[in-house]
Every structure is written in structure tokens, then in C-alpha cells.
Amino acid sequence: MPGPWPFGEPIEIVRPGAVTGRDEYGKPVTGPPEVVEIRGCVVVPRQEPPHIGGAEQQGRDTVIVGWTVYAPTGTDIRTTDQARIRGVLCEVTGEPGNWGRSPFTGTAGPVQFAADRVTG
What we know:
By secondary structure, the protein is mainly β. It has one domain (9-117): Thrombin, subunit H. Helices cover 4% and strands 48% of the residues. Strands 1-4-5-8-7-6 form a six-stranded antiparallel beta barrel. A two-stranded antiparallel ribbon has the order 2-3. The mean pLDDT is 85.
């Protein structure tokens, strides 16, 4: 599963700019964000898990809260990044996972991460 996948789609990684100094309150001032396009990603919708119990669980509609992304081997994804997926800006949530190498083929696997829509 090395990727990039020929029918995958591009996403953009939006990384915070470098710290260029401090403001009058001592908070870091950053430069413009760095935007990097990653091609050949597999993007699948991720739904909110239903709450356990009763009629609420049985009658609940599926709520899509973001995506799971499988990026090509070696893609640098950080927990501080954002991802623009299908025009929607998302937060990278949780720690990105590197699948490592297959014990059967020796090929390297994808980098997997969750991306939640930015709200508010």
C-alpha cells in the first residue's frame, strides 16, 4: 500500500508559520503559514460514533465529522498541522500513524491521519 494511489486525490497541508518574534504580551508572532500539496491521497469519510443506548442510538442519522486520510509513504504530517480536504479546512486530530513496512513484501505503508472540520 505504498501510494500515491493513481486515482487518489490531492489535499493541502497547512503548517503554521515559523516564529518570527514576540508581541508586546510575550506571545509568539508567526510568519505566514506554509502550504504543501500532497497528491495521490485516499480520503474516506469518518462518522461520529453513535451514543450508546436507547432510541437515540437506534434512530440516529449518520453524522460525518471529518475524514480519514491515507497519505503516501513518508508524508510529513504533524499534530499542529491543518489539512484542506475538498476545499474544507480541517484540524489534524490525534497522532498521525505510520504503517511501517509489510512483513510479507517489505514495502512501506501509508501515513494515516484523522482530520476534523474546523468549526467556530
